[in-house]
Amino acid sequence: MTGRVSFVGAGPGAADLITLRGARRLAEADVVVWAPSVVEAACVREHARPDAELVDFSRVPESEIVDLYRRAAASRLKVVRLHAGDPSLWGGLREQHDTCRKLGLDTEVVPGVSAVSAAGAAVARELTASGVARSLVLTGPDGDEHVAEFAAHGATMAISASGARTARIVERLRAGGYPDDTPVVVAYKVSLPDETIARTTLGGLEACVKEHKLYRTALFLVGEALKETPARRAAAGDEPVRRARPSRWAARVSRDSASVAAWSAVHDWQESARARRAAPARTEQADPAPGLALVVDATDTTADDDAANAPAEPKPKPAVAAAAKRKPATVQASTTPRATAKKPATPRTKKTKRA
Predict the structure, then answer these.
(1) How would DSSP label each residue in 336-351?
(2) Where is this region: Disordered (predicted)?
(3) Tens digit of pLDDT for each residue in 166-210?
(4) CATH topology for 117-226?
């Protein structure tokens, strides 16, 4: 057995947007490598063990991180390196992964929710739409010099850049062919309580950034697919919208117990990893050990779902049913006394004594 390094996507910011697998890896980790500037502390505080070693890789050189990986290989430690959003987007995953493989460590990449997906969900728009924009171009913080070349394709663009470069971005988008009325969404700290989601156009982008004082790294979504649909006012005489009757499967999906069961599983992993209790030895006794009790969650609907999904018993075939009908019926004796008819009494003849 050797050490393991898991590259986990922490999501766009909110602690509950991390995946279940990522939360489990955090609960099992002996060492958590993260940057508080890009990953919220609530995510680590919620899912990591209290005794886990926390390393801020933004304040230590890369050589110390490599030494940490060597220590993990020698001591068989479980290390989690947290990435903001998804590790495969602007996270420097390749170099870290190759370094761990050279040291003989087991590696794993756990995907996460990207900030691009979270920003599209915040404005309730898909980033690609048929007839408008069939492609999505992602540009990192160091790729804004190619914005004009990418803009020539007319696709939806997701640009991660500092707000101080807004004027430069607007100039290159115009050079690529985007008109001033092109819709733009500016997302900053998306999914967090202090998030900023602003809708504007390419012509008013600089004023929008100055108004909200967005001078740090933000996400700019540009394209016709982000055009806002005007709200429809209800006219007099409109019929109320009829809601469809939910099916059995829709009712099962909408149960709150499903999310409760998922998060209870995460907390079980966390508590088991934090406690580090040894598994109880198996005994050959038939009766359970004293002090152990079976806890049943009242919100668990697994048995109900299994009963609902169980296939119906097959009906007997006609030949078997006909044969069953030909069997003689069994007669069960009754305990009620029968009323018997009385026979008519016959006259008795008088016997005479013989001498």
Answers:
(1) SPP-PPPPPPPPPPPP
(2) 298-355
(3) 999 999 999 999 999 999 999 999 998 889 999 999 999 999 999
(4) 3.30.950
